[in-house]
Amino acid sequence: MSTTTYRNGTVPKGALKVDRPLSMNSTSTKSSASFKSKTSGHTPATGPRRKSTGSVGNSAASNKDDTSVLGRVRVAVRLRPRNAEEMAADADFGDCVELQPELKRLKLRRNNWDSDTYEFDEVLTEFASQKRVYEVVAKPVVESVLDGYNGTIMAYGQTGTGKTYTLGRLGEEDTADRGIMVRAMEDILAEITPEKDSVSVSYFQLYMESIQDLLDPANDNISIVEDPKTGDVSLPGATTVDIRDQKSFLELLRVGEAHRFAANTKLNTESSRSHAMLMVHVERSVKGRDSAISSENGSTSHTAKSFKPPVVRKIKLVVVDLAGSERIDKSGSEAHTLEEAKSINLSLSALGKCINALAENSAHVPVRDSKLTRLLRDSFGGTARTSLVITIGPSPRHRGETASTIMFGQRAMKVENMLKIKEEFDYKSLSRRLEIQLDKQIAEHERQQKGFKDEIERIAQEAQIRIAEAEKGYAEALESERLQYQKDYIDAISKLEEQWAANKQKHENEKAKSSMLSASMEVAELKKKFENETISRKAAEEEIDNLKNQLAQWKRSEAAGNSEILKLRKMLEDEECQKAKLEEEITVLQSQLLQISFEADETRRNLDRGDTVKLPGTLDSPIPPFMLQHLGDSGAGEKASMANLFEQVGLQKILSLLESEDADVQIHAVKVVANLAAEEANQERIVKAGGLKSLLTLLRSSNDETIHRVAAGAIANLAMNETNQELIMSHGGISLLSVTASKAEDPQTLRMVAGAIANLCGNEKLQPKLRGEGGVKALLGMVKCRHPDVLSQVARGIANFAKCESRAYTQGNKTGKSLLIEDGTLPWIVQNANNEASPIRRHIELALCHLAQHEVNAKDMIKGGALWELVRISRDCSRDDIRTLAYRTLTSSPSFQAELKRLRIDYG
């Protein structure tokens, strides 16, 4: 929770913070006294602060808080000893700086007889130990942090002057080499109480204006969040780790340093290319600062006085290892390292501008020019105690960079911060205390409730004992009364019986005669009723026997009828199977008849050829004899002689024959082109010479079906090449093939056309255009021929089309329903999935498996009966690869699995 405090000391309504200033006259802890003694020489205790309209810590105009403490930025300078390179290169030159640590002065030589003198808070020679550096630079800040003030420790200087050594040295080999980070955490952990206090750490770097988490490299774009009321800066996206001991902190630093960017330059073999920041968050409980909770009427109740919210201090220590400033010409940076150097120099320049503005009480401080200045807005001109160590080298070659570093420190010494203690009520701790007290109250209440219940049970038991005694006395009295009444009742009964016996004897004689007569009449009437009941019972039993006989006869009739129905159904199924077999036999016979007819026509045409033909007007001489021999030859050696014809006549002359007015010449020429196109080596030359256009023109202009058949075969051969497929589509070839298929009657012509379209179906880039120009419809229309060769080519085209669609689904290029299903091919596919012809069945099975690969087709396939064919293929297919593909498709499809489960078919 951040503090909402203004420079005039007021707190906005509803704030829960207590801003306790560090009083210079107050008696505090030992560490506080030590802190004041070390800073009294450079931090004024009284006196008004200079008014500033903007600062890194607060951009709004502010007045001095009467209870706040002014704290100037403390600056120490540390000289690095000469390295091996400088000892060799500058052996004849003296150092460019002269230190006077006892006077806290530094002289920067202009030349051998003139120099400039600068004063700092501390001047550390090249022989100063890491412990000495920590005590004069960082320890006062750490002690003030433990007293409740925010603190900043920062190192600034040229590349290679020892900033990272001063701050981040781990001291694994020699503990005397430990840097400020390790020593500061040792002091903090030694002072806090683990049971009441907590320490957490964030470690990140500013690399090329991007904040990256050094503890989680994947978190490489952390946003800066500013409180709109207080202006406090935080990084909620950075990883925060709780620290319990020094060992875990050292491991955290190792992880962070391993992820920090560094590069080899002329000035430093491991030059830091980013600004690293270690942010330590400390929460400390404050003893004796609890505040009472007032009741609603303004008085403080007894219960409220016993539960006072404890006060906690939330302090932040920031240790900043700035990347070194450098000149490009000296560092030798280039390529990506050059871009890093530019980014470093820009952020350091922005920081220098802000410090200049604060030192000069400028009306505007350019805080937002860089993320570095936004992160350090509380360190310069804010509420944090800031200590800066500037590192310099002795080499006279880098005097300009050394002078720039010294001037940066001199300007920073003019910046004053308004130090404040930030305290707040620890309502979480109070809540825990209240919960404990509430648990005690609940336990006491439960104990009293249990005692009350025990008392009630005791009283109830006593009442039950008394009630039992009363009931026992009442029962005894009631029993005695009952016995008395029973005795009286028996006596009265005996008297009545004696009187009744006397009266009975008196009347027996009078009624003896009349009773004998009436008894005989009653006996006769009862006998008559018994006989009637016997007759009725026999009639009922006979009727029941009749009904049982009728029921048995009806059951026998029903069984005979069911048997007859089953026989009729079986006969009907046999008739349907017989009918289907006859239809298939008829289809096969028709196909064989068509094929025999086609072969007879071909034989007759070959026998009729042999006349001498002359070229049309495009050629000046008749066809040579050897060309006529090739044009008329359709025997087994045709393919072997095509190469000789190709070389002797030339491709252009052969193609020119396609434009002849003589139909026979055109037929022979197109056959030659078709045979040439069958060889892959000739296809490119035929297309370049315009043979593809000539073949498409023949399809469009000629009415001869033989030309159509041979031209379609040539196009089918050319369509086996992917480049030619695109040319065929771009010249409207699919439309011409579709029109040819609709006009053709010869099965072989349809076979050639279907083969050409089937080859085009294998190109997934052309599928939308092929379907849009009627290619799928043309394939589906050719199945009316019923010739096995035509059906085989149609099945191959559908399988190619389905395979391309399946590949498109896998690559994520297609999401809608299959174009084959939309064009109505699914019923034909299902009908021919078990075709007797092996090529047809194999292609159809492949098409079904590829269609089933995508879930969007499952519903239509289930509705169209394709599911049963897939089950059959997965079990009965002769090819292992198709059977495995069908089984994998069925087991991976949720829709198919749900339908099989609904039909109670255990599959997969």
From TrEMBL:
Gene3D superfamilies, A to Z: Kinesin motor domain, Leucine-rich Repeat Variant
UniProt keyword terms in alphabetical order: ATP-binding, Coiled coil, Cytoplasm, Cytoskeleton, Microtubule, Motor protein, Nucleotide-binding, Repeat
Domain of life (superkingdom): Eukaryota
Positions annotated to bind ATP: G157, Q158, T159, G160, T161, G162, K163, T164
Stretches of the chain forming a coiled coil according to its record: 442-480, 509-592
InterPro entries the record matches: ARM-like, ARM-type_fold, Armadillo, KIF11-like, Kinesin_motor_dom, Kinesin_motor_dom_sf, P-loop_NTPase
One biological process term in Gene Ontology: spindle elongation
GO cellular component: mitotic spindle; spindle microtubule
Main location: cytoplasm
Biased segments, Low complexity type: 26-40
Subcellular location per the Swiss-Prot or TrEMBL entry: Cytoplasm, Cytoskeleton
UniProt feature, compositional bias: Polar residues: 53-62
Pfam families associated with the record: Arm (PF00514), Kinesin (PF00225)
Positions of the Kinesin motor domain: 72-415
ARM repeat coordinates: 649-691, 690-733
Region feature (Disordered): 1-67
Xref: SUPFAM superfamilies: ARM repeat, P-loop containing nucleoside triphosphate hydrolases
GO molecular function annotation: ATP binding; microtubule binding; plus-end-directed microtubule motor activity
Family that this chain belongs to: Belongs to the TRAFAC class myosin-kinesin ATPase superfamily. Kinesin family. Ungrouped subfamily.
Subunit structure: Interacts (via C-terminus) with NEK5.
Name of the protein in question: Protein ARMADILLO REPEAT KINESIN1
Organism for this UniProt entry: Anisodus tanguticus
